[in-house]
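Standup notes
- HV: blocked on the assembly model, inputs below
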Amino acid sequence: MARTALVTGGIGGIGTAICQRLAKVGYNLVANHHPSESEAAERWKQERMAEGLAIATIAADVSSFEESVRMVGEITDGQGPIDVLVNCAGITRDKSFKKMELDQWQAVIQVNLDSVFNVTRPVWEGMLERGFGRVINISSVNGQRGQFGQANYSAAKAGMHGFTMALAQEGAAKGVTVNTVSPGYVETAMTLAMDEAVRNSIVSGIPMGRMARPEEIAAAVAFLASDESSYITGANLPVNGGLFIH
Ligand code: NAD
């Protein structure tokens, strides 16, 4: 039977590539989106249909525990238990720290980090009981090295990997792996909309001389979701073109 995968932030730039990749290799896919994106999600679903991919969508604000529990319950009732969870929903609210407001700190921590608890918690026990599970957390190179103007985002993204390392130990004997993928700069609507000079200066600092294609992040996720990665857990896989090597 096909495994069921849930991708949070699934209709975003990287989320879309992850959904396409996992759906193509036969997963029963559910893409989560924020409730404010319902119209965009409907269009997104039609676009996937046109590509021959039937992907369910579900609205839930993953910064809310109650909403996340409700979402997981609906998926489990309708499609079966979740075997693969990709925590991909994320936002930025960049500001130098001296100008950063409490709401900018809290929003980034709630959407990027609290969401990882909110969505993983309700799927976790089922994974342990069934003896199989994959949790993949989409962090960032800026969680590994820090970034000016991103104290909130760097803290949340580094926190995601702390979560990965701890939970990996709790799942290891039960066939449940937990890993982090840390992308560098990725060609998404956000980075493509950047001022050309800013974009060029970022690209000039990347040893591979280009940003990642979303499909390159999706390939790493597909590997970590697969049976082939069965002995890998607690890892932080950088997909950054050599931008940060340690
Ligand atoms: P994106 O903005 O295209 O996608 C993120 C998605 O998450 C959006 O659809 C957004 O609506 C959704 N989302 C935001 N808040 C939500 C909430 N509370 N509940 C449910 N959904 C919510 O961004 P992206 O570039 O595809 O980024 C995906 C992930 O990859 C993020 O976690 C981001 O931090 C990370 N990342 C991106 C880059 C990059 O260069 N684009 C680099 C490193 C890491």
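- HV (later): unblocked. The longest strand covers residues 176-183. The two ends are 40 Å apart (CA to CA).
- Next: hand off to the docking folks.
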